[in-house]
Amino acid sequence: MNLKIKYALLFVLFIAVLTDNRVTAQSKPAGGQKYDIAAFLYPAYVNDDPRLRPFWPKGIGEWETVTSVQDRFPGFYWNRRPTWGTINEADPAVMSMEINEATKHGVNVFIFDWYWYDGRPFMETTLDNGFLKADNNNKMKFYLMWANHDVVNTWDTRLNKFNENNVIWQGRVSRDEFEKIAKRTIEKYFKQPNYYKINGKPVYMIYDIPQFINGLGGIEQATAALKWFKEETKRAGFPGLELQLTMWGINLNYSGFDGSKTTRPENDFVKKLGFTSSTHYQFAHFVNVNDDYLNILNNVKKEWDHIDATFDIPYYPHISVGWDNSPRTGQSAVVKNNTPDNFEKGLRMAKAYVDAHPKQAPLITINSWNEWTETSYLQPDNVNGYGYLNAIKNVFVDGK
């Protein structure tokens, strides 16, 4: 074969491979699969974290809330039981099992809820002692969502029935405290080889923007602090920071921001702060969840269309398993008909959204891996077995 023709054919083949790969330069999917399925992980199910004892004195974290429902509310309808038992997720052997089960079913990223109160980290043992010490954590990526909300009596089943909402710890931090958090995060987590990145930039999600702004002293101060965080990330050797917004109404409250010269003040507010992408954390943040799951999905689709029309930054689609936080308080709005089959319909909706946005990373977020007391979890139980995990596997692994 003529050498020029041979090289020409090789070039065509190379271009075809690139064209067929929707991810291209945007993101290298974790574990080699085509989509990045990222489940939020709530790190309260541990046996060896002394800072959790004031809320759950038995020493098993929020499993205490899960296992005591019938004692606190005799005859109550909520009676879920974990197939894996009340596991200690800060045990690396347990986390190794979870990583195997997650990745086998198509969940290849964990988004760890991460907390900082009273000048130090809180509920960090699941990540530090469990995930990062698991012998197979190279199979899975992770990133952080800073859950910077106040802590009230919700977690403590002895007190939450009084509905007093006393603030135990404030989520807001000063500039000095924020710099301490940011530097620690860069060194301790961003530099982990399996930290999730988009275009080489570590992804970092912030939960409560009003708390952040109030702690820093205003929008201008918050903007300056986030700009500094990006510069620090670059100084650490990364091309930048993928700063991810938790998209919900409270975070788009631009009070004090001059939006009089724009028709899209929410977009300008988010861009001013320096956010470069967004996703949701829970359906409960933006739709009426006291409804049928299929009706909720219709409203979610409308919200995605609104986001596409309003914001310039990429939005990564979010699907929640459900919502019912009555295990904590005995009362709640409740998602109805959120069967694994209907959850799978939501996943297909998210997949279609990703496919329609091929220039952005193939990221889909899910609430959640283990939010048992909010009844929004993928882990197997006595009601649906492995149904929710199998739904992910059907769509993103088996391609059914």
From TrEMBL:
State one Pfam family annotation. Glyco_tran_WbsX
Q: Record keywords: Signal included?
A: yes
Keyword flag Signal: yes
What start and end residues bound the annotated signal peptide? 1-25
For this protein, the record's InterPro entries field holds: WbsX
Coiled coil (UniProt feature): none
Q: Which UniProt keywords apply?
A: Signal
Quote the Gene3D superfamilies the UniProt record gives: Glycosidases (3.20.20.80)
Can you say what this protein is called?
Answer: Glycosyltransferase WbsX
Source species: Mucilaginibacter corticis
